[in-house]
């Protein structure tokens, strides 16, 4: 056999071996689709879910990019079909989707939404912080820590705002920890009941009501 034939055969076997060992990431099984047509599903919410799945399934961004058509439908898929030859990687695809389907004033409107997002009376502190911090992440430019703190401390329940006047904190997490402790006291206070003096084993040591 000639050396040239041996090299060609070796190269073909190498390519075949890579193709056999390559595992399909099965992105289509995630059942995630972005259409760009449903106002109830924001692009950023969709991308956050995709990133969650990508990490848990250990899928690379290059594999994600190659499976892009499994993640798109409707208008978004139509847009992708005419642009895919121009796109080089997952980050470029995300930029293209953002420019095409996200509100042009998204950051300004989202920041205003965050500033108006107060804690609901029945909402736990940790739940409130989790949701607002996720909103912070969806801004294209990260807010400084002190601005996040200012927004959060102004939007927690009024009772907590009063209690915070005597507290010291420098990070969002420190603020949350303080508020969780205040919340614990508040929940215990709401569960408090005056002592009963009925059916006691030791009535002489029970409370004496006049």
3D structure, described in words:
The chain is 58% helix and 0% strand. It is mainly alpha-helical and 210 residues long. It folds into two domains: 76 residues; 86 residues, Non-ribosomal Peptide Synthetase Peptidyl Carrier Protein, Chain A, CATH 1.10.1200. The chain is elongated. The N and C termini lie far apart (112 Å). The model has no long low-confidence stretch (mean pLDDT 91). It holds the Pfam family Retrotrans_gag.
Detail the topology: elements first, then pairings:
Layout: H1 3-21, H2 43-56, H3 61-66, H4 74-83, H5 90-101, H6 106-116, H7 125-137, H8 145-155, H9 158-163, H10 172-190
Oligomer: single chain
What is the CATH C-level name of the largest domain?
A: Mainly Alpha
Strand content: under 5%
Rounded Rg? 28 Å
Total beta-strand segments: 0
Architecture of the largest domain in CATH? Answer: Orthogonal Bundle
Kindly, what is the distance between the CA atoms of the first and last residues, rounded to a whole number of angstroms?
Answer: 112 Å
Any idea what the shape is? elongated
- Helices, by number, come to 10
CATH third-level topology of the largest domain: Non-ribosomal Peptide Synthetase Peptidyl Carrier Protein, Chain A
Q: For the residues shown, what is the average pLDDT? A: 91
For the report, how would you describe the main beta sheet? none
**What would you call the structural class?**
mainly alpha
The low-confidence runs, each spanning 5 or more residues with pLDDT under 50, are none
InterPro entries: Retrotrans_gag_dom
Domain Retrotransposon gag: 69-150
